[in-house]
Amino acid sequence: MADEENRTQVVRLLGDMMNAHSDVVRQSTEELTSLYTDPDSTVQVCMVLGNVGKLPAMRKCAGHILKNRLGQPDVWKNLLPNQQKEAQDALLGAFKSLTMNDDENLQLTVVRNVGLVMGLLLDAGNAEAAAWNDLIIDHVEELCVSSDKLSQLLGAICFKLLVKTSPDMFEKYLVRAKNIFVRTLELAKEQGELATPATEHLLSGWHMAIPLFSRRPCDQEELAATLPLIMQMTHAFAYQPNPKRSCRGFDVLAKLNKHLPELMWPQLKLVLDELFLLASDTNLGDEIRVQAIMALRNCVRSKRRHIIRLKMMDKLLMTLYRLMAIKPALDADGEELYLGDTQEAQSPLSEAAQTVILVAAESDTNRVALRALRLMQPQLEQQQSAVHRVAAQLFLALMAKGFTDLLADAPLRSFISAVETGIRDVEPMVRRSAHFALSIMAENLQPEITVMAPKVLPLFCEFFDQMTPEQRIADHETESQTRMFCTLEIYCESLRREALQPHLGELMKRLMGALQPDNNSISLRQLALSAVASLGKISKDLFRPHFDEVLAITLPLVREKPPEERMLLRTQAIQVVNMLSNVDSEKFAENAPVLMDSYLEMMEHMSSTQVFMFDMLAMLSNYVPEQIRVNFSFLIVGVLAAIKDGKDSDDEKDEDGFDAETDADASVCAEEDSIGDGHGDQTGEGNTRSITSSIGSLGTSAAPDEALLCLKTLAINMPDTVMPYISEATRCVSSYTDSQNELGKRAAFEVLTEFAILLYRKGDRNEAKCQLNELMPDLVDFVETAKETANVVAAMNCITQFLKLFGSEALEGEGFADMIINIVRKTLRRKLNCQFDIGQDTKMSVLQQWSQALHSEIQVMEAAGEMLPVFGQSMRRRQFAGHFHSISNRFLKSLRQCEPTGQITPHLYFLYKLVYRCMEPLGVIAEQYYDVLCYSVVDCMMDNKPHVIQFAINLINWMLTHAHDKENMETIITATSQVFIDALNANSPLANEKREQVAAILARMMMNCETLSTEQVLPLVYENLPFSHNFDAYIQVVPALRKLYQQKPAVLEPHLSQTLKVLLESLEKHQLPNEDTRQTAIELLALIKVDQTSLYDDIGQQFPGASALIT
């Protein structure tokens, strides 16, 4: 009776849970969860859930209570067997009573509780429990394979809900689930109805089941067997109008690729063929095609090698190419927006572009380059479709953007040839696409594309030649014009000036044509002026042939008072004039007074200082300091104001940046999703701009870093004039040492270093030393963290200046010595942030002759090499010896294990010079490195580069001068003499000037080493006498001949006639370089005159002036 009352009360409380009053609902819920928790009440809750006669709302309340109870430990175990059976019967009834008329929440509630009980029965592990679970699975299968559509749909929903709500239980029935999945889909396939709501729910459930297979390796083959059906459903759903349903198959593929990719690869061909078809079908919506392309990209990322083994990489690349072979959108000028929609979210074009880049990035650069060229060459050559030729250009450009390694010479030449073909195409749209491709390659194929300068630079000339009169006079520049001018600047800035020189004349001819006001628009002239400034900045003195014509066209622009629309034209003209000051200082000095007058006039009428104006002031301070001094109080106010205003602006930006951090993060993500960077974005000289970032209008306000660098130059050129303002200037500048702007930070360091030098020289050592102590840790940190090589070199030079100025006092700060030696160590090991591992092979040695970026990287090493010996001079020798050993031990050990080859790379040459530079600070301790120095001499003398040979000559002379005892001297001569003897052989290619220096070295060796064979060496010396290029060589030869005549006259006797002629002629023509050598020659001639009077008289009469000196 009590049980019956309890059950009645449970039903009443479940009814109260549907009450409209929240208090009643809360109270009834509390009573059900606290008072009525006995097994019999639990059974009653199950019966209410299974009673179709109850209101759905009450059944859902019962399901909610039951779910919470079954989730508690031991609730099910506390039920008696008959109670468990009663509950199971109720739940089975509830499950079988579900229809499509039931709302989704009731379906979910019933299935969830059924799944919970199935899991509990599995834990019990008895046969009777397993049989009940089989009844549930059987019912699901029965529904799924029913001929009734609604039953099929209900079965699929139950299938999905069981996976969703009870994954741990479902894991035990994966094989049964696979059978249901396959059987249902095979029936749907027979009926031609693979894409139905029922199969969608089934596929959704299978999607959720995939991760479960990762925990059951024994069942994974069952999952793999479903892949053909999954691909068929992917195809079928792709053509459904519902976007969510259309992408369902791709979701399953993505899940499978994420959790069990190894199951996909045995059937990769099947997957790829279907994805190729879907990606290429223009009848499908963009969203579906995007999903197909993204799935392809996942395949590339995971199984690129397998795709190649299947011989499907060509098909993949051609599929991507065809996706790009569409007519581009046009901008307002009617020009193509190449890859313009790659900035939009997920279009087929953008995803195809991303995938091309990924293929290039993931593959061996040169192999995939050759493959791409083989596939694209026919497309470039065909004449049926200009759109396809455009697509081929874009395809190769994207490939170039993705490459991560250096492109070899052969494919590099082919890439440039493809662009060259496009630039000469008859169709304007193809030519513009080639211009676009060139801009991408010039930026991303660094540094190797610098070697192609003889091919690339003429392409810019062709671009200028192809411009029509209408294009030249258009009132604004088009995208293609701006892009090509910016590409020209960026590419030229990546070159060594020696590589640019052969093409400078042709480029300047075109640019000067673009500067003529009658035939060109203002905007085109602005672009041309910017390009001229860039070429001149790179070329420096090599630009002299163009000085006059450039000045003639820019000086009037600087001096005029332009209207607003021409203000930017004058700004660019100022930049060009500033550049000319570094081209020909003498010619520039003639125009400096006029320019200074114009500068003052401009400053009076400007509301704010324009860009390049401070550069102009800095440059003029070197030519007309007096004119500047007269107006200095007016000018310095503008400089300091720009510095202060710039810092205030930076602070505001920092605050805005903090507030917009989330937006910035989103921007970074978007950038990562867009077309990624290529392998070579470094162009040296502190330049990091890209083609795209360069396009746009130039601002007219001067940047604070320009004002800072101006202040530094003023302090160098006009120290006395700057001195009264140094305190105020220091306060303005000091705030920039923590700037986020790297160039501004570097400029601040340089200014403060110059101020410290100025204070030191004016006698204020204490203030100068305070500056040093404040700056040194920041300088060291900047060297380690700065990204641009030019900025790092500048900071290293500041440290070197402090060391030269203060000596040991510069290292008194705590840890300063360790800081400095640490950055030298990091530099030598290429561990600074600005450095990259360029390797030391022959390819890199060639590239260093062309690429400014690689040359700049060497300049960082050189700056460290300049700093190290100065550092050594600032401390005790033994202390420096310890530091030098710590940084040199690695490469010196390697050198000592090698044999000289005469193949001196730039890096090896740097190491040899570094060791040599450090010998002086080491003093006598340098002797322990003489073996390395001798090795360096021999290796460098075997090379054929003049500067390397000269280094060997200088080094051996230093060693012979600093050898402290006879034993050291003989060791040095024994180790090195043969290479100098070989250098004077008749078949040696050594130049005459170097031969004379080598002859002097051998003469010096004869004088200091008794074991050296004079019979072998002396004839070689005499073969190079008399000297005609290097008279300083007599300093070594004359004393050696005198000593030899005194000690071994018989050896010299065969050469007495030549000796007399050489010495008398050199005296007659005043060729002996100093008085000591002259006196030694006179003494030797006097000795010969006494011993060989007849011979002397015969020869001496030919040189009466010299003979008169011999008594």
From TrEMBL:
Keywords: Cytoplasm, Protein transport, Repeat, Transport
Subcellular location per the Swiss-Prot or TrEMBL entry: Cytoplasm
GO CC terms, sorted: cytoplasm
Chief location of this protein within or outside the cell: cytoplasm
Gene3D superfamilies per the UniProt record, alphabetical: Leucine-rich Repeat Variant
Keyword Protein transport among record annotations: yes
Sequence ranges of Acidic residues compositional bias: 648-666
UniProt-listed GO biological process terms: protein import into nucleus
Keyword Nuclease listed: no
Region: Disordered, residue numbers: 647-666, 671-700
PANTHER family, A to Z: IMPORTIN BETA
Protein name: Importin N-terminal domain-containing protein
Organism: Drosophila virilis
